[in-house]
Amino acid sequence: MKKYYVFLVLCVCALTSLSAQTIVQGTVVSKIDGMPLPAASVIPNGETTNGVATDFDGVFRIELNESEGVLVVSSIGFGSVEVAYSGNQTLQIELDEEANSLDEVVLIGYGTARKGDITSSISQVDGIETIASRPVSSFTDFLQGNVAGVTVMQQGGDPTSSGQIVIRGYGSISNESPLTVVDGVPYYGPAINPQDIASVSVLKDAAAAAIYGAQAASGVIVIQTKKGKKGKPRISLDLYGGIQNAEGLPTPLNAEQQASVYNLAAANGGTSPQAAHDAAQNPWGQTTRTNWMDEIFRSAALVNTNINISGATDNVNYMTSFGYNSKEGVLVGTKSDRYSFRLKSDLSLSDKVTIGENVYYSITEAVGTNTSSGYSGTIMNALYFPSAAPVRDENGLFHGVVPFDLSQFAGAYGDVYNPVALLLRPTTTSPTNFINAQVYLDYEIIEGLKFRTSFAHSTSHNEYKSFVPRVPELGRTNLTNSLTQSNSITNRRVWDNQLTYAKSFGNHNLDVTAIYSSQFTNYESLTQRAEIFSSEEPFNQYLSNAADQKEPVTDVYEDALTSAIGRVTYNYDNKYFATASVRRDETSRLALDNQSDIFPAVSVGWRISDENFFKVDKINDLKFRASWGQIGNINSVGYYSFDVPLGSQTLIIGEDGLSNDKGVYASQQSNPDLIWETSESIDVGFDAMAFDNRLSVTFDYFQKTTFDMILEGLEDKHQGTDAAFVNGGEVKNVGVELSLAYSDKIGEFNYTVRANAAMLENTLENLDGYNNSGIDFVSHDDYQVRDALRPYRSTVGEALRSHYLVPYVSIFQSQAEINNYTKDGVLIQPNAVPGDLKFQDTDDDGDIDNDDRVYHGSYQPDLTYSFNFSANYKGFDASLILQGVAGVEAFNGYKYAAYNASLQGYNLDSRVLDAWTASNTNTDIPRISTTDNNNNFGTQSTWYLEDASYLRFKNVTFGYSFPNYVMDSLLNGSSLRIYISAENLFTITDYTGIDPEVGGIGLDVAQYPLSRTISAGLSLKL
Fold first, then answer.
1. What is the rounded CA–CA span in Å between residue 474 and residue 407?
2. What is the pTM of this model?
3. Distance between CA 38 and CA 316 in Å, rounded?
4. pLDDT tens, 110-163?
5. Could you tell me which of 714, 612, 606 has the C-alpha nearest to residue 669?
6. CB 766 within 8 A of CB 728
7. Exposed (0-12), middle (13-18) or buried (19+): which is 922, by Cβ within 10 Å?
8. Which is nearest to 651 in space by CA: 641, 664, 633, 640?
9. What is the mean pLDDT of residues 318-332?
10. Residue 598 half-sphere exposure, CB side, CA atoms within 13 Å?
11. Strands 122-124 and 197-203, bridge-based pairing
12. What is the DSSP string of 579-606?
């Protein structure tokens, strides 16, 4: 009997062994960052009762009866996946975040909100996780093309400049720029390390931005930096390096061509040819020794390193990062360097009290060059300088336009700098030390009621020093050396106190926020210039060694802003939404009676897709929204505009003129009646999700109006001082925005397509209050080309800073055409000859002058658009970005000097070889002449105006992530991705300048171009 029991037990054990012989185990992680996912559900073969959940480290183990089958793995906030198994296995399972979850948290002013609950115009910047894969040194570069209605006006490729962000068009002639908020605190420092950024929202309409009040009239960019995640400490290393090159550079005439062209120009102009261009008299000038574009441009290196250490427990969250970014400019001698360090942590003292700190420190230094001047711009001088001249002479010194023994020919080549010397001769340093430190305390008073106090202090200290040696070579000689040194420091403190109450009562959901904010800034600078140094050696480049000490210049100001803010957000049944806010700002920049003002905003929303009558199967969510709000613009107000700004000057006194004294005078009239410039916006739009949340659509129509615009007036200038600032105009921006995103997968191939577009019309509505003289325009004479062309004007009914030009018609092909162009039998262009430009007599008075100018649009694009595509398949990933603008005009002032032989004999662009001649009539370049009797170049005409629309292949990136089992064999839980990226790969445009993104207001005199960048890098997580 005992044998039977033993046999029975053995059979049961065998059967049990056969029925539970398959064990599957593994780890579930996030595909975005490789972090483990605790509490993820693992369901085998549809048997929910036999499922398991992952532990704190994302690990699971499950015993299965079937040797083959399918596991369904899911986690809140992530899409589920099906994973096949066969036999005993160890799996590494990655989950993608839900692409279009309405529960996604979005940054808003002083807080966050569910994406599905937002009723104002707030756009979240997509693809932040890819910022480490692109060779961008600032977030501004990454933002371009990512958000509808946000235009990044790149200021060229100079390392000292960054793109100007314009949200929904220009609203003022005065200074305006979006407010940047980092981790809840307004940020005014240098560009932060972009790889510290976790998420970004752009607050575009007044209802969204009004809570930030006086500094938010141009929109708000809200940035949240990274923080630790629960689990073991994580170390991340991101590294890339690359090479930059400039494309589309101009080609100067070679030496023989320059002589030939100027001899032809003299013959056409009826002047005597220069001896310098006579091969017999000056054979030196016939030999090409230098391509100056090749000498000043280079293949430039860039390197970026970023290390991040982070982690979290139940009570502590920490993140620290170190970044180094070094970028050579494609113009020799230019560069930028940034070292950055961030330490961020918070500590829960109890379940009600949390304290934290966030410290960011950076050292930045950038050395650029002037490319905006028609006289001393580096690229213009590279065009001007004769190709016959070498870079240096036989003694290693910089060479002039001719050797000293041929100085009699120097005047024929003009007063021009050696462009390499222009870049390399000055010794310039300009380091900026910046620190921003924030501490805060969060206290939950009772359930739903929270108090937060935050104090931030920042200090920015810049030390500038530039020594410019003598310029002894022939050309633009200057025998006076000089040293300019300045020191400036800015201190700013921001103290915010915030109460928030959030409560749900059945279907009623209420969120109330009250804030008191105080900001104070003080600034001081000292600038000293000295001249005549006996020695130019580095040891002698100090102010005390100069023979001539100039008067020091100081600048100082204090600025205070206090604000009280209230906001109420309500929704009923997640279907009907309303938000209202009011902000009272008080500034020190205005007279006492006008220092404060109140700015309200309101928005509403209706989720129609939740209504019982709405039965559209393909639409998962549809919400309509509308908003209205007002914001004051403090950026346009001078620090002491209400008072009488004083200036100082050294005066020579006494009969013999040997004495001097300091004189103080009123430099500008005051205006105690100056009030806030106000921006008001109306926004109507909708958000939709369709096709099982694969497609998302956002549409907005908006009107943004700036009234009481602040600008410098015209009246009373005869008093000998600058006019006071006045409230004198209204500007309106009207536009539409559309954003689309579609995500799907085909097997293991996952892809996302995004596109956005925005159309904008900008108009100066009136200049009421500007002056009493009936003048309905503002001249912009500070934007000019060699003091000859001033093509911009803001006038009522046109866009701000419009081109104001005489229409160019064609080139006269014959004397008969000239003779037939008459008014009442009198020649309209009597000085013209065949090959000259024909201009339109718009006022029909029989001649061509400034009265014939009419308006021809502006540099603000009518349409901005972009297209993004990203995909991944079995560890491989790829992405591309196309970005463009249309309906944009640039003034190509480069042509004034590059095609004009009537100046000082400068070398010219080789395109003048296609200038009009009797045998070459199919051209738009006028005849070459040493005289400009027809004013071909001196006329401010549309001949200079060009379509600067473009489509740019902004970025393409290919990457590969090593399989988890490979990385686990090296270090469990680690990951490695390698990639190659190309930035600004090519540009499709009709613009004939170097680059259509010329910056500023569209005036191009050979602007520092953006560069093409090829880089490779890796991202390692341990």
1. 7
2. 0.86
3. 18
4. 877 777 778 788 888 888 888 888 888 888 888 888 888 888 887 778 888 888
5. 714
6. no
7. exposed
8. 664
9. 95
10. 4
11. antiparallel
12. EEEEEEEEETTS-GGGSEEEEEEEEEEE
